[in-house]
Amino acid sequence: MGANLASFLYLVSGILFILALRGLSHPTTSRQGNVYGMVGMAIAIGTTLLYATPSFGGFVLIVVGLAIGGGIGAVIAKRIAMTAMPQLVAAFHSLVGLAAVMVAAAALYAPESFGIGELGAIHAQALVEMSLGVAIGAITFTGSIIAFLKLDGRMSGKPIMLPMRHVVNAGLAIALVVMIVLLVTTQSTTIFWLIVAASLVLGVLIIIPIGGADMPVVVSMLNSYSGWAAAGIGFTLGNLALIITGALVGSSGAILSYIMCKGMNRSFISVILGGFGGETAAAADDDMDRTVKQGSADDAAYLMANAQKVIIVPGYGMAVAQAQHALRELADKLKEAGVEVKYAIHPVAGRMPGHMNVLLAEAQVPYDEVFELEDINSEFAQADVAYVIGANDVTNPAARDDKSSPIYGMPILDVDKARTCLFVKRSLGSGYAGIDNTLFYKDGTMMLLGDAKKMTEDIVKAMDH
């Protein structure tokens, strides 16, 4: 295969990736977007195999590697539960970062194989690209591992505030710049591995102070990092497809992170520099009546059956209980009774961008019934019932009313403005942000304590009686 044909096919795959991102931006076109992405990746892989593989032995090794990796990926994708998707994404990001480090190391020790010079005489431009790729890749690797451990519950979701962390991070960043300059001038393998070590440490220090309330932003941010790492290595390899793909992933991840930070009224820089300490519980208001009104499935069924408008607010509790199908059945039952039903999604509901949208789509909830925060928040005041199913932090009025709260300023779904708020939760414990939800104690709130799926199913049964 000629170089011109390979470049053309890489360009085609890049266009397909752009169409994939466009398709994935809306639920109705997401399946088509996935198809575009898969076709684009197939073209990119096929072109690389036919054009860039130097020998038959190398071709066999690559195919074997693809078979092993693809087989492992297929098994994981088939077995993984939707509730574990955020930590799976974080784990996959770590592999992208590690791959960037390994490719950069291979290019350093065998530059002639990459067409970037000879050992000890590598082109300066390639060294700069390699340095940036390996630094971002190493940061992505350890940062993603920490995110995985926090999301999977193997490490506390609370921020770990190290003393003088900003000074240490700044010092490491300056040291990285100095070492990159030294690598370009000396081409020392020792300096290269020092860059790797410093970047690995920096990845840990960046993510450890970030609390659970910021985890959706962290996942998106690491996605962006993995893209930039891939793009940097793409320049080293001279691979057009890798450059395009990495740039698309990096820029789209950065834009998504910005949108999510805006949705939480947080500075992206402040999140990167250590989060906003969401796990430190706010001091309780001594003047507040903390009496809880507890109800049953029968109570909830009566209230919803006699409502004119019900707004459903899904959260991570719905994901854990796998209650989306029972929720769809409840909504269908309400619509049959002439009740208007809508779904309200907060930008950071769940632990991964789009988490709730995917679950609702799995239950075949109509797309035109699902609304984002800014489109539906004004409607809660006209709703008879807000049915909150496991969405804790994103409905906490403290974010709106209590300036001492760690989440103050974060836009929330105004479920407390509905005539009645039915809140399904296993207990009165705090959410992922680790703070008490004052919504539990408001006059218009009725707590439905129990498993979200069973409670929803019991409500449906009670409506039949």
Question: What would you say this structure looks like, in words?
Answer:
With 465 residues, this protein is an alpha/beta fold. The chain folds into three domains: 1-79; 98-280, no CATH class; 297-464, Rossmann fold (3-Layer(aba) Sandwich). It is 58% helix and 8% strand. The protein has 17 helices and eight strands. Helix 16 links the parallel strand 6 and strand 7 (420-425). The chain is elongated and about 80 Å long.
List the helices and strands and how they pair.
Elements: H1 3-24, H2 30-51, H3 56-79, H4 85-109, E1 117-118, E2 121-122, H5 124-151, H6 165-186, H7 189-207, H8 215-237, H9 240-263, H10 268-272, H11 297-305, E3 309-314, H12 316-321, H13 324-336, E4 340-345, H14 355-362, E5 370-372, H15 373-376, E6 385-389, H16 398-401, E7 420-425, E8 445-449, H17 452-464
Parallel strand pairs: 3-4, 3-6, 4-5, 6-7, 7-8
Antiparallel strand pairs: 1-2
Helix pairs in contact: 1-2, 1-9, 4-5, 4-8, 5-6, 5-7, 5-8, 6-7, 8-9, 11-17, 13-17
Task: Sum up the structure in keywords.
465 residues; alpha/beta; Rossmann fold; 3 domains; 6-stranded parallel beta sheet; 8 strands; 58% helix; 8% strand; cell membrane; DHS-like_NAD/FAD-binding_dom; membrane
